[in-house]
Structure formats: structure tokens, C-alpha cells
Amino acid sequence: MEWLAYSRRQLKVNMRPYIQSLFRVTIVAFLLCLSGALCGEAKAQASFRARVSSVSVLTNTAITYTFSLTNLAFEPLNVFVTNVFSAGVRDIMVTNNYDSATAVNLTNRLVLNVPDLQNSLSSEITVTLFTTNAGSLTNFVTFFVDSPSNSFSTNLVTLVTNLVPVETDLAVSITGPGPDVYVGDWITFGVTVTNLSPLTAGSIVVSNSFQSNGVQVVAVKSISPANQFVNGIAVLSPFTLTNKGSQTFKFTVQPTNAGMLPFSVSVNTGSDTNSANNRAFTNILVSNFLTNMLVVTPTPTQKFNAIIGVMEQSILLSNASPSSVPSARVNVSGIPSPNRHFNAIGTNSGNPFVVHSGALGGGESISLLMQYKVPSHQQMNNLVFTAQAMTNAADLTPPGNLIALNSTNRISRQTNYISRMLLEFPSTNGRTYTVVYDDNAAFTTPKVVRPSIVAPANWTYWLDYGPPATISPTDGGSRFYKIYVNP
Fold first, then answer.
1. CATH topology assigned to domain 2-161
2. 140 vs 84, 86, 325, 366, 368, CA distance in Å?
3. Which residues, at least 6 apart from 376, have a Cβ–Cβ distance to it below 8 Å?
């Protein structure tokens, strides 16, 4: 660790090589009443502005970051600005117009500190550095007062090229995992990059970060692609998109502790004329399970269902604790390859699970049907079942982006089949569909069936067998259905 004090003069900091980019990006953040500082109602404690001189540069061209800080509180503030780089830089020069400021150079980050920023005064810090190789440089910038828990973070991305770029416009979006994320779950984020310009965009670089305050609030393990994240940042290899084209990347990670999991993504091509749509951000709440004791009792036999081609096994889920649980999971381990758990809705620590979406009172039990895809149609032995109590009732609200199957929004045929409801509908092979059900024809309280259906052909059969696909058995009263096409 190397401490550098500076005041109205230049400092030179040597760090290992890095890379960064074009156009001017400005982020303004206001932190409200942080760290116990004196603060009036609705008044910000400090203002912060971070900008980069360019979002695209040629190799060996200087990149300058400018950080503007203003104390809006009634007492002095201890202000920090951390810079975490995704790749190497050289010849770092730091200037500042405020006395008593310091900088510390760590292996992959630069920490700036203004320890005594007085009321109504401002400090402007500039960091200038040079790149050595073509590629993308992400600077994950965090501004906080007194404590990293009170912070604002942003990514400043610069693409370093050897060629003068052609102007384009890229946009990036995130599709996150659904609700009910728990410690150990395998959760998948989809990152979609779209080229909005009429020109082909080349040398596109996507940076993803599971970080907050320069460190991870929730630690994650990379599942797919394996070993993707270094220091919480993943930078994909450059690629090309044709005009109006798009490409989606998926990242599967496993949170290892409870808390808030922040995920940010930025995209850059070195010639983007519109930086406003180059970033996306989301927060995922990761929960711990409740401590209620749940017991699973499986039936000893599995039967083949020829209608939909799966092996089926009934289990009894019991709440052995005196208190009610909002909902519950059942995990299954020991399924040999190439077999798979057909009606599982997720994976935790490598094991598939189903969810009983309704409450289960103390001492109560409910029968659940497990379905397995087994090419040999032979019974599987030595399966292990475990159950966990969830903190909230499952969210079964239909997503707002579903598309009606047809103009009449009706199922082609539904038939009572051995105390189950058989649904048949036309489909596209490989397309995903969602079944929505309700106990009244007006669908005033619609609920989704989980999991969604992947059509095996141009005509699909689905059996409503009750829990865990639906909250209650099919013989509990009237039930109405709608089929939707997933986007």
C-alpha cells in the first residue's frame, strides 16, 4: 500500500496497465442525510459528479476522470472516491484543488480521500492515465461519506481501439431472476445488447459487475460460464452486431449469503453517440429459509404417465412445527443422468426443487406430485427429499408481457382425465407457454402455473394435477384456464 498526499499539485501513481474509453459520460448523485451528519429535511448531504473524458480512445491516448464533490451539510465531511479498474493502466496522474486530500494505490484500485471537506466548499479531483492495449476498460466508481454503506456507484466504460470508430447507438437491458431468491439458488441474469443504429457495430464490449461500494454485498459463485467474474467484474470478448440486431448473454450465479445482490451492466462500442442507454442496473434480495421443521414422506413407487411421457411419484409434505409457514420448497437429489426433474421450477446447490405456493399450517400436510423425465421409463431408487420453509408466500401474479395464444384466448379442448384436467392447445415446437388459472371465469384473481410449458410439438397436452403446479387440487371446485405465449 502506498499513501500519497496532495494539495493543488500533481501526483504520479504507478499502477499496472489498464484500459478505458470515449465520449463524455456524466453521472450526478445526491446522498441524503448520511452518516449522522447534520441535515435539514429533504436536503442532500453532499453532491457528487463523475465523468470520463471519452468513451472511446485510441491506444496510448490519455483518459481523464473528473470527480466533483460539494459539501451540502452543516459540518465537515470525510469523503471517499474509490476506483476499481477491470484491466491495466499506466502513468496515473492525480490533481486536486483542495488541501489535505490523499490517495492510496492498491493492486487493482485507486482510493481518493478528502478528509475534511468544509461546509459549502467543493473539491474537484482529476485522474489521468494511459492505456497500453486495445480493448475495454471499466472503472467501477464508488462515492461515499464516512461509511461504505452510504454510497453511490457507477460504471465508466471506455473502449480502446486502433481504428477511428464509426458512430453507432447501442442499448443494454437486464432480465433478472424471478422472485423468491434464497441462499444457494442458481439464478440467471439475461443481458441483451441491441444495435439501434442503421450501421453494423463492431468491437462491442459488455462489462458486468456484482459489486456495491467496490465490494460484493452478497458473495456469488459463478456457475455458468464458470470462473467468469474477476474482482466481481466480467468483461466479455468483443463481438459485432448488424444494424437493428441484438444478442443475449446469460450469466448463472449462486449467492452464498443473504442480503442485497446488486447487478450492473454496461455496453460500449467506442463509437456510441448516445450514452444514456448504455447501462442497466438491478437489485435482487437474497433471503434465508425459515427454521420450521418440514418432513417429506415419498410413496415407494413411481408410475409412467403415457399422456405426457413422464414418471410420476406422490410425496406427502408435512409441517412438523407448531407454526404456519407461508410456502415451502421440496428439493430432490440423487437423480441420475440423463434423467431430470420435469416439474422443477429452480435449482439450489445443484439440486432441482418444486414449491408449494400456499401456506402450510402447523401439523398440516399436503400431497405433491413429482414428475421426472426418464428415457428408460424405469423407476429411480435412492432419491433424497428435503424440505425448507420459505419466508414469503410465492408470487403467482401473471407477468404483464404475456401474449394471448389466439384472438379468442380459448383452449382448444379440456377434458376431465382421472380427476385431473387435461388441456390441449396448438403450439410451436420449442416455444414456451404459460398456463393461467382462476376459480372464476372473470379471472379476477389469476394465478400462474409453475413451471412454464415448453412445447414438444405443434400440439401440446398438459395435465392439471394440482400441487405443486397449482395451489389446490383440481377437485376443489370450478377452475378456468387461459394459455399465453411467453415473449
1. Immunoglobulin-like (2.60.40)
2. 5, 8, 41, 49, 47
3. none
Kindly report whether the global pTM for this prediction surpasses the value 0.85: no
| Phi, psi dihedral angles at 475 (to 5 degrees) | -95, 15
Of the candidates 352, 312, 305, which has an alpha carbon nearest to the alpha carbon of residue 450? 352
pLDDT average, residue stretch 185-191: 89
What's at 239, amino acid-wise? F
Distance of CA 293 to the CA centre of its chain: 30
Helix, strand or coil for residue 333? strand
Handedness of CA 470, 472, 475, 481 (dihedral sign): negative
Shortest CA distance to 111 belongs to which of 165, 161, 67, 167? Answer: 67
Q: In sequence order, what DSSP letters do the residues of 350-371 get, joined into one string?
A: TEEEEEE-S-B-TT-EEEEEEE
The owner of cell 490523499 is: 102
Residue matched to cell numbers 493492486: 107
| CATH class of residue range 170-287 | mainly beta
* CATH architecture designation of domain 294-390: Sandwich (2.60)
Name the residue among 395, 269, 272, 264 with its Cα closest to residue 326.
395
Residue keyed to cell 410456502 = 327
Q: What is the pLDDT of residue 317?
A: 98
Residue 412 has pLDDT above 60, yes or no: no
Regarding beta strands 181-182 and 279-287, do their DSSP bridges make them parallel or antiparallel, or are they unpaired? parallel
Is the pLDDT assigned to residue 249 strictly greater than 60?
yes
Q: What is the pLDDT of residue 136?
A: 81
Beta bridge partners of 113: 80, 102
β strands within 146-277, DSSP E: 151-161, 170-175, 181-182, 187-195, 201-209, 220-224, 233-235, 239-241, 246-255, 259-268
pLDDT digits (tens, 9 = 90+) for 125-169: 999 888 767 788 888 888 888 765 567 778 888 877 765 555 678
CB 184 within 8 A of CB 348: yes
pLDDT computed for residue 149 by the predictor? 58
Q: What is the per-residue DSSP string for 415-452?
A: EEETTEEEEEEE--TT-EEEEEEESSTT-SS-EE-SSP
Contact 399, 487 (CB under 8 A): no
DSSP string, 105-136: E-SSEEEEEEEEE-TT-EEEEEEEEE--SSEE
